[in-house]
Description:
This protein is α+β, with helices and mostly antiparallel strands. The protein has helices spanning 5-18, 38-50, 110-117, 136-150, 159-166, 183-186; strands at residues 55-59, 62-69, 72-76, 94-98, 101-104, 218-224, 233-234, 245-248, 264-267, 276-277. Mean pLDDT is 87; it is low at 7-27.
Amino acid sequence: xKINLFHVFIFLFxxxxxxxxxxxxxxxxxxxxxxxxxxxxxxxxxxxxHGGGDETFTVNGVSFTMIYVNGGTFMMGATSEQxxxxxxxxxxxxxxxxxxxxxxxxxxxxxxxxxxxxxxxSNSKGANLPxxxxxxxxxxTFIAKLNSLTGQQFRLPTEAEWEYAARGGNQSKxxxxxxxxxxxxxxxxxxxxxxxxxxVAAKAPNELSIYDMSGNVWEWCQDWYGxxxxxxxxNPTGPLSGSSRVNRGGSGLNDARLCRVAFRGxxxxxxxxxxxxxxxxx
Length: 282
C-alpha cells in the first residue's frame, strides 16, 4: 500500500483535534506513549498501512490473521502478579514503550509452513498443529520466503512486543498468564496436555483475541538474550549480540510456572526442539 504523507499529517492533525483522552495522554499522542513526536507519525503510517485493525493474508491457499496491537507503555518483567514464581532473569521490572504493530493470532501452523516451504519438519503432523522443530535460523528462512510471496515485511516479534501482546496490550487486565489467572483456561501445559501438542486456538484467547501465548509451544523472538536494565526503554530490540536467542510462552510439556507472561527462555539460534515454534509479527 502506498502511503501519502499529506494524508498522514491530516490523520495526525485530526487525532490532535479529536483526542478525547487528554487527561491520560497528550493530544496527538497516537501511540499513547505520553509524548507527541515522530513516533506518532510512524504510528499513523502503521495504522494507515494496516487499516488500524486486524488483517488476514492468504499464501498458496492458506490463510492466517495478524492482530493489530495498539502501542503503549507497560511494565515488563517481574511485576506483582507474577509473585514468588518470578525468576531473577525477569528482574528488574521496567517501563517499556512500544509503537503499534501486528502479531499472529496463532502460532505459525504446519499448513502455513508447508504452503511457504513445501516441507514440514514437525515430528507429529497436523494442518492446524503449530509447526515445531524449527530453529531461529529456520524461522528467518521461512520469513524471507513468506515476504517474497506476499510483498510484506513479516518478522519475529521482539521480546518486548511478545510480552506486551501476551499481557493484552493496552487492554491488559494484569493476568499472570496470557488471558487469565487460571492457566488451564488459556494454556495447554503439562497438567492438561496429555503429553502432546494441540491444535492452535483450542483454548480461550487473551484480551486481544490472541491464542496460545501461554503454553502449547515455545515461541522464538527476534532478540538476543540478555539481562534487563532498570531504565525505561522505547521499542527495545535486545542486546546487539549474544550466543542465544529469546523464546517465550512455555509449552504443553512444561509446568505452569514456565507459561507465565514474564517467563524467559533462550536457546542457540540453530537449536531445534519438538516443543519449539514461533508466531509472526509485522
